[in-house]
Predict the structure.
Amino acid sequence: METMVQDLRYALRQLRKSPGFTAIAVLTLALGIAVNATMFSMVSAFLLRRPPGREPERVAVVTSVDPAQGFQADATPVSAPNYLAWREANHVFADMAAADEYRKVSLTWQNQSEAMHAAAVSANFFNVLGVTPLLGRTFVAGEDQPGQDHVVVLSHELWARQFGSDPSVVGRTIRLNRENYTVIGVMPATFRLMGFLTQLWTPLALAPADQTADARRDRSLFLFARMKPDVNLAQARAEFVTLARRAEESFPETEKGWGATARTLPDFLIYSFGIGTALAVLMTTVGFVLMIACANVAGLLLARATGRRKEVAIRVSLGASRLRVIRQLLTEGLTITVLGGGLGLLFTYWGVKLLQANMSFNDAVSAVPVKLDANVLLFVAAVSLVSAVLCSLAPALNASRSDITTNLKDEGRAASPSRSRSRLRTVMVTGEVALALFLLIGTGLLVRGLFVIEHQNLGFRADHLLTAGLTLDAARYGDTSRQTLFVHDLLSGLQHLPGAEAAAIASDLPATFPNNVTLRIQGQQDALTRPGLSAIDFIVSTDYFRTAAISLQRGRTFTDMDTASSPRVVLVNQKFVERYLSGQDAIGKQVRLEVSGAAPGWSEIVGVVGNVKSYSESSRDEPEVYEPFLQRPVSAFSVMVRSASDPNILASALHSTVAQMDAELPLTRVMSMPAVIESQRAGNPLFLHVLSTFAILALVLAAIGIYGLIAYSVGQRTHEIGIRMALGAKGQDVLRMVLGEGLKMTVVGGAIGLAMALPLPKIFGAIFFDLHVSEPMVYFIVPVALFLVAMLATYLPARRAAQVEPMSALRQE
């Protein structure tokens, strides 16, 4: 300990004697550590945060596997009949609960109605998760039976915002969807499942209709189950693969091709949130930035060790062992990294604040608390320790191998450093160039790929379009005739608004990831022998295609004559014709949609419309089917109004129109269609800005590394350059010689980085769903830009070398 204290004191004295060197080394490491710690704060918040409840890793989430492979096809919810059957038949879970996490309810309180995110859960849901309420109680057995289900549990956020954190709210009655519910409990603030925005919970009451074979088409339940003590996840998965196969054999018409899988609760929340891939890319990027920063500091320490050759030689000649010298130099490196880590922690604090300010683009994202927690502090300590080793180990080992006799005899200040030191620094700087080029090409590919997606033709006109969500409650609009009448009156009122050109309703807005429906085509291979075909399913009013400006390719659109009493009709898109009808004439073909709750029957294709992207962030076209609202009314839909000018001007009129028809019916997400699309893309700018910032930082650090190495080399070779110029070399000759050194490192590093970056398009295509990043120009533009930056960094010291006065250089010792 006494020796360590001596080493530390000596290291501090040495660093204090060289404030410029110390400041540059500490700042370089602080930047590298800060960007890593800032990104790790997101990793800690999204990937490392422990879900609420008792032993969450023992809780499994069971989901269906959709045979129509798409984005997260293995995280599809489960049908109610499968839940009931699997709950009784499995042998791996001690208890199983179900939750419909995506319901909307209207909360009326103090004459104000507000739409809420709600979840309907089985009575044992909270017990399976192992959570207890802050106030009151949770559901008990029997409260998930029809007629006994008018009780509600509030989230802490809703309790604080809507009810002023009043403890007496427990036991009071509130109105949900025009019906009275008794508040029985309030959950703690810590109870929040990542990705779910649930504000209140009601019992999941399954009626006899939810247990029929036809109900198997309605997959809306996530199953939460606690594994038995002697069961692992692999056994649970195997069990449900068997149960899914058994369901497929018993009900081939609805279960053909469908499977089941299970994940632990923490893994499921991370997987379904879909942020893991982006965080992995960002953490890899900042890891490379840290390596470049460490290489720069190592280069500085190598240069510093060169100037201390005689000091090391004297220490060794007086009896210091090689290990003692290494330890002293490592202590100096550790001191630098500790200072860099402390300053990096301050930068991290500011970085986290900046992230928090830019993460409000999405309710689910902003609900996750990103902060400077214990995980981040431990990460900073670990990164600092690793940085100390990366920065100082190679210089310390190199300095400890110095030739004592040569260094003691060396009196000249202009002596050149050993080839091993020069070679080591050259390798480090070449590696920096390679990593910087790799990061810049990767960033360029992602920027280009996202630019193409964000500027693609979505297949409809989003401009001048106002949208809103609306859910008709069962208490007043329980039958289809009332739903149809309400929609008729609503559209009539909206079409007569000043400035409104057209109005329509749709089960889903275009390009917002609507649901799929399985189907059969008359005359094709029977669905019992293979998994059913699938298509995006829209239920739309008559004027939908005019309102959304979707082009009609063939046939006709819907009319007011397409009612429940007329023959069923549908429209399909061009992709449907290409994929399922081999480009044949679709008009007159018969299709059968397998829809839960709807009477089975065949529908005639009466028109073909243009392709509309199923999601604004997807570049692929999917088969789409459109049904007329008058033939299959739905209670939850989106309203669309096309305006002659700014659509937001019609927002207040839309509110007034709905309020005049029904004061207890709240609208949700009243916003223009461009704003809807922008909200889907809002995470992209943050991702690209962060990634671009780190790539540019890597480029700057690499340029600094080149500049530092060439400048140090020129300083060491001043005497040599003087001799060359005294013997007739011109300034331009010296300039070319020094530029050649930088060019050699840049070319070698660039070639390595280019080789590393060649597989990136395939890698990005595999890890990012539906992102095509093939852009050959990036592989030309980025190396040219890097070459110019490297040449500029080399030119400055090369110009200084070309201006050396021969006589002044020759007089140097």
Q: What stands out?
A: DSSP finds 27 helices and 22 strands in the chain. The CA atoms of residues 292 and 432 lie 5 Å apart.
